[in-house]
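If you are new to this repository, start here. Below is one unmodified record pulled from the training split, so you can see the exact layout before writing a loader.
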Amino acid sequence: MFFFCLSRVIYAQQNNYEVPKTIDSMLSVLSTLKEDTAKIKLLNSLSVQCMIISSYDSSLKYSNTAVQLADFIVNNSTNPFIIKAAQKGKINAYSSMGRIYYAKDLFSISIDTYFNSLKIAEEIKDTNLITDILRGIGHVYQKKGEYQKSLDYLLKALNMEEERKNKVGIASYIADIGIAYFAKGDYNNALDYYFKALKMGQDIGNENRVAAMTGCIGLTYKELASLSPEDTLKKKEYINKSLDYLNKALKKSEDVGNKYGASMWLGHIGNVYRIKGDYTKAEEYYLSTLNLNKELYVKNGEAHWHGLIGSLYAETVSYTHLTLPTNREV
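And here is the target side for that same chain:
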């Protein structure tokens, strides 16, 4: 769940409850468009909107229609600019399909789809699209648990951005590499890359990225705390560092109006208090993030935090000194 949400923390995407209205507006426009590249763009945008609300069948439908229309234009147009625009539309459609299959845990199909996209991007020599596709492939291998392959593709994308001296791209891929190391359980390397990405985010003035990387550092210290023996100075040190960075991330997200970021960090602060054994504080933060997820209409987030609150209440039954209710309606 963390990696899915992180993109929303960085890019501050629209609220879920706004998406159906956006889709309705797009569909009303779609019916008026000719069979041209503008229609491909809108079909791809519809696919993305459907993906946000996990309507994957609809998302695939719009992406497939975009691919078919792109093929038709490429085969029938003699204008090189229109042909290239159609090819880019096809690349974006394939990339969306790759993300959908990734979300559905259909990893082999996702990778095949991404490689279809990569082949066209390399043919038209579009570096922006190539690096974005390499990122997608890296994410799939990461979710599969093939961490070295994930790192290979992410490092390849990073090298391309470094050759172009693209600071925004460099910061993005450094962050992704940090996430890959985190997923691998290599927390020292994860911290190295997170701190580099944090510094770059500060340099380019991307406040959402600063919040995201600050939070990632906090989460890494939380994992280190979980791995430390009980009642040790090192565990207490990691817990304090985790709370410090997560609270900074929360404040930064609140300052820039990123409610998705705020909801994410609230929940993880609750997790740290749970590790610390402060179940009352954990409950407080869990309930705060649950309410914010309800406000934002994030159904998978609601389910996630409902589950953690339930397990917290069950866990506290054996602690007679605590007063947390075990039958509270959440």
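Two things worth knowing about this chain: The chain has 15 helices and no strands. Confidence is low (pLDDT under 50) at residues 320-330.
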